[in-house]
Design a protein that fits this description.
Lipocalin; 8-stranded antiparallel beta barrel; mainly beta; about 180 residues
């Protein structure tokens, strides 16, 4: 496997057609999965991978759980309040290398005007040429946040001290980024 020491230094842009920023949340007795369809992101890779940076901005209007009514409710003041807070942002604050292809990416996540530190477990999937003459890198990142910490605390109480919607949101990001000339 290619080690991260071989990653080309430079500026990489997320490829939206080959990137998914997804999430999972507990709902009643199952889980709801969704993703965001519109986002942009930049990775600036350095010779020392721990000096690299990541910035991502997500258009919260683009939330997609596969159900139009639920997506409209998620855009409302009960959840994201997109009329006031149209985007969610992430800006890295540090990277720790755990092995040749595993990292912990620390950063500040901002949702609804609230910024909290988070950590993502990142797996480097490789770097290589694409059929169009470009250079691509692939990563997968996973993490978990508390939606209540960001002021997203809408819920419906159920019998036995249960609630309809879980607090913990699991993040799952699979991304390809293209080296900029």
């Amino acid at each position: 496997m290619t080690t991260t020491a071989a990653v080309t230094t430079g500026t990489w842009k997320l490829d939206p057609t080959h990137t998914e920023i997804g999430f999972t949340v507990r709902h009643l007795m199952s889980k709801v999965r969704g993703k965001f369809d519109t986002f942009e992101g930049t990775v600036v890779s350095a010779d020392d991978v721990t000096a690299s940076t990541v910035e991502v901005s997500v258009d919260l209007n683009s939330i997609n759980t596969g159900t139009a009514d639920r997506d409209a409710h998620l855009r409302s003041g009960d959840f994201f309040e997109v009329d006031t807070y149209p985007s969610m942002t992430f800006k890295s604050t540090g990277i720790k290398q755990e092995s040749d292809d595993e990292f912990v990416l620390s950063g500040d996540l901002t949702i609804k005007g609230v910024t909290k530190p988070i950590e993502l477990e990142v797996e480097f999937l490789g770097e290589g040429s694409d059929p169009w003459g470009g250079t691509r890198v692939g990563i997968e990142a996973k993490g978990e946040i508390s939606r209540k910490e960001f002021g997203i605390d809408f819920n419906i109480p159920l019998e036995g001290d249960k609630v309809m919607i879980g607090d913990k949101i699991k993040l799952n990001i699979v991304a390809e980024a293209v080296l900029q000339a």
